[in-house]
Amino acid sequence: MSKRLVVMSVDSLFTSDLEKVKDKVGFAEVLSDCIVIPNLTCIYPTLTYPCHTTMITGRYPASHGIIHNEILNPSTNNAAWYWQYEAIQTPTLFDIVKKNGLTTAALSWPVTANGPIDHCIPEIWTLTYDRENQDLYRNASKTGKEVYLRHKHLLEYKENPRFDMFMEACALDIIENETPDVLLIHQASLDHERHVNGIQAPKVDEALVNHGYWIKNIIEAYKRKGIFEETTFVILGDHGQLNIKRVVSLNEMLRRAGLIKTDGLGHVLDYRAYAQSAGISCHIYVKDEKDIAKVDEVLAQAKEAGYIEEIFDSSAIQKMGLVGKMHYAVEACPYVSFSNEVDTDILCEFNEADYKNSLATHGHLPTKGDRPPMLIYNSKRKATTIEGGRLVDFLPTWLTLLDLDIPDGLDGQSLL
Fold first, then answer.
1. CA-to-CA distance for 309 and 364, rounded, in angstroms?
2. Spatial distance between the Cα atoms of 213 and 303, rounded to a whole number of angstroms
3. For the whole model, what pTM was predicted?
4. Is 351 helix (H, G, I), strand (E, B) or coil?
5. Residues 181, 404: contact at Cβ < 8 Å?
6. Which H helix or E strand runs over 281?
7. How many C-beta neighbours within 10 Å does residue 325 have?
8. What is the CATH architecture of 4-241+368-401?
């Protein structure tokens, strides 16, 4: 049993990265004596916000309601994300530990804005450039606002590694001055470098080194406070990534079929059917059943062209733990990702400003490619490897580490 829990999410950390970082700062200490849960089974789609919400709820997206990073709104190109905690439809780790009298902190953990968290600076950003990204301040907890003001000089809007450096500084500040019982931090420099450079590249290796130092800094902060021995540290990844060679706009195919109305300049005015990209997968929305035959025709053309590998109907979607108003989910063929663009060529340009259309991305079926690990360090349990872990198992496993009761009805179970 641990009195305290720290969870550090390294976005897009692969199990295969562990060999590469085993002698690197931060990772070396953890890997020398930890429980390793490799090659975790993720959820569909393998996107950051659904994945992180599954971690803290022990539920699939069909239950917790976060089915995508971005809220469907074609007229804005789905600009707003699921930032607000109120969007989560089931209890979370934060609710459970609060009922048990523990204090909490969350730094850049997805879908935590204005949640029941004692010390919180959520992941969020203004929709137009703002160097200090003041939406962080507006959506932070009381102490989060104070901490933001002390460290906002580190920010350059939402750009990494500056964003991660800011969150690291805020975490260290909160550890020193508030010492919460449970702290979760999410950092995404590794994910960014994989998107813009491909899944293996020198910049990816540099990002892994940075994450190692950030892990070391947080562990050392608990040692300085004299509470290291009563704290368990969890380091994890959330999803894999796959390299991309072609970017395809299903929406342009739908527009040419008369199912999307635009202004001719790339903006959606209205739609009868719409394909919301999730990177390597896509959610197909159809407003009126009478248009399904025409949508089916477009999807068949895309499959014939080598863009779509699989088409899942509502029954198949539900079996995968996904739910929503979508009529279909489609999985891309190898090396293909989907764009939201309209008034464009069907084969689009790469766009490193959009994670879905970069040189590598995710959102794919959890059976494909590299999978993430979870490392449990300083739990006073014997170092071992546990196979068969799933993202839905994270919450019950963390509650076991804290010696708290596991709620009934979860989709996951404790791995310990």
1. 11
2. 45
3. 0.97
4. coil
5. no
6. strand 281-286
7. 11
8. 3-Layer(aba) Sandwich (3.40)
